[in-house]
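Quick question: what would this complex look like in 3D?
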Amino acid sequence: MELYHLTVSSLAKKIKEKEITIKEVLDNLYTRIEAVEQKVDAYITLTKEYAYERAKILQERLDAGEDIGIMGGVPIAIKDNICTNGIKTTCASKMLENFVPFYNATVIEKLENAGAIIIGKANMDEFAMGSSTENSAIKKTKNPWDNERVPGGSSGGSAAAVSSEIAYCALGTDTGGSIRQPASFCSVVGLKPTYGLVSRYGVVAYASSLDQVGPITKSVEDAALLLNVIAGNDKKDSTSANLEKKDYLQSLINDIQGKKLGVPKKFIETGLNADVKKAYEDALQTLEDLGAEIVDISLDYAKYSLPTYYIIATAEASSNLGRYDGIRYGHRAKNFDSLEELYVKSRTEGFGDEVKRRIMLGTYVLSAGYYDAYYKRGQQVRTLIIEDFKKAFETCDAIVIPTTPNTSFKFGEKTSNPIEMYLEDIFTVPVNIAGLPAISVPGGFDTKGMPIGMQFISKAFDEETLLQIAYTFEQNTNFHESKPTI
Amino acid sequence: MKEYEVIIGLEVHAELSTNTKAYCNCTTEFGADPNTHCCPICTGMPGTLPVLNEKVVEYAIKMGLATHCTIAQFSKQDRKNYFYPDTPKAYQISQYDLPLCKNGHLDIEVEGNKKTIGITRIHIEEDAGKLIHDAYTGDTLVDFNRCSVPLIEIVSEPDIRNAKEAVEYMQTLKSILEYLDICDCKMQEGSLRCDVNLSVRPVGQKEFGTRTETKNLNSFKAIQNLIESETKRQIEVLENGGTIYQETRRYDDAKGESYAMRTKEDAQDYRYFPEPDLVPIVLSEEYISSLKNSLPELPHVKKDRYMSEYGLSEYDASILTMSIHTANYFEKVVKKCNNPKIAANWMMGDFARMLNESDLQINECNITEENMASLIQLIDDGTISSKIAKTVFEEMFITGKEASKIVKEKGLIQISDEGAIQAIVENVVANNPQSIVDYKAGKDRALGFLVGQVMKESKGKANPGLVNKLLLTILNK
């Protein structure tokens, strides 16, 4: 078997037991990248030199008998909106095309402490705004299953890299589905942890109250392993939860006997693609066969998630993106005659259409006279959605719904109508609005052979239940075993 | 001309003297080289997050408690969005609808009349950086050292009616801030500054007139001048049939005049919304009451105590308690010398004058409290005269030497030996026969002249009481 087929846990074991050197791992992977990357275009930056330096140090420590961490020597791709000290962090924007942070995101510190090696920065929708990675100002990432189709987004580069096995694992960020939707489109595992479980420090903010970092992996086990590394309270992030550290690997139990799984029938009945519907019904049958009890739940307000999301997320984005003004870093217009012109030109040139659209929308909903009608009302609906889920979890342990209503679409198919693109996130957005954890696991293929993802949602900070159910589903299906041919 | 009433409200900004900034670990120290006290957080680099310095909350609550505010057990922080190069995040973290403190008041006294000024609210926020305009190159540079230094904004009700009240209100706030040790109150460095909201209306009119807001006044003089000139300007406009526009104005200290910066039409929409990067501030009753119990003796309480305990006049007591540094100094001196009245006279007389002349604060001067007390003791026990004491004091002020050492070195010990003084007195009387004649003729000034001559002969060391007594004995013979 080719080395790059390995999962994180099996690779880490081989390195630890010295069946293979870290350099050999990198040699193999970069050779693979050289062959495949031009077809996928998953990376904005490759950090080869840095990776080999890290590999040398880690190997020396390992050879000296040191414990180099649970991810010791394992290569990882990082979504390009997560700050990496000394490595360009572009957010796939012209605005930050040459931006090199001089600090690390907390998740990067944690990964490095666990022995992981950053091999590159992955492509994404500009500033994480989008569902197809088509909004990247840098390049177009292809879906490894069909290079005429999108990988999903915004963490499209991360998902495509893991799917095409030019990364063993990756970090993504999820504000409205940006980890789960591309994971679903590319047939990999994508975990969006509970809001507050993983530090946001150093993660370039899109919508602060919704953003969350999470792993994109080949298996549920790897997702649990990465979550072990990145989760935990961070004094640098006031919104990070102060909870006792858990070992999520303990949740990898192949048993869901007696678990109650909620199905919000009414919420998912519209717009669901026939193939996805079929896969979903099959998944429910599988789960039932494994001893789970399928229960009806209602999520009355979930249908208002999208409008709520496009108010709250854009409001926060309009403020978060104000700092890109051409003054201290980032793109600055060449010619300007006044401060205002410097601002206007730099931002006009530096931001893409979707980013501008969301800044304008967010600016509008926060404006004097409109705040109460939009932002305040959005927050009120958000509370109703949170209550909705709370009520649902009184009768079930987790909710299961498809990750997306459709499978991957062709480039340009939805770019002319943003609303149509936004609708792709209808099943993922409610989770962010409620701050809950959710995972997308491979759940089938449509008639064109494009992947379908199944999504499990659990109570806040109950990643254990989530992982157990996802793991059991994965272990008793074989969708994750199929790999794209590139 | 109609009679007008002036309506004034102040928004006072006080930089809190915490060691570190409001949302990061950078020092708040003033005066460093540009951009040496900043980090990714306070310069708003991508991905960074603020974490609230708990001292900021503590200091703000202390000010709230000292001004009789209600302290909110639940409050939050908000973003005030606007573009300006001194604001690197393009928003200022402030508090919008749920401030930490509200509904307080402050008692002031102007020319013997007591008055209560309402305090609408006190909230926390962060300061901006500083723009430096390079006149030589024409460039504008930004210094982020001040960026994110914590501030409290103290907003008064429109209860102030003239410049004197405004200055007194500001003075009283300053005094409390110093007592609480939460702001260094260096107005020239901008650590205490205020915005003046002012309108006028004909006496008897119920509705307020249109107000203007003049920003960033950083001296008592500027506040007074601005209020006087802005009052005059508004009345003149109205008298000439004009209209007052709601506008933001800037005061030019050098020219002593203000001018409009922007009108209401181009007023910014700050798009306030709750800061999602920070959690709400939730305070327990125990925490608030523990802060209440930790408050020091405040100026008005101290003043009352000086009157009752030291027997000082209300005027003296209020002067001495205005600054915590003066009050602390005074109390230490009194504790040593046990003579509050003489101590008070010194503090308000020569000491205040010398400090003023040399532009020093009392806590910056050379004379320790112990030395000041021993000087007073030397006067008390007759070792030196009050007159000599002035010379000794000046020497102490410059060199910081002990009083007794100066007295010894310069041979300034008071002559209280009757025989020695008698000899000088007789000599002076013999040399000034005309003065004797004048004195006998009822010219009291002659006595003063003779005393002066004796003091001169004795190089100022003769005990003035004895000189008087002995002279009178001879003159009245």
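Answer marked as accepted. The two ends of chain B are 70 Å apart (CA to CA).
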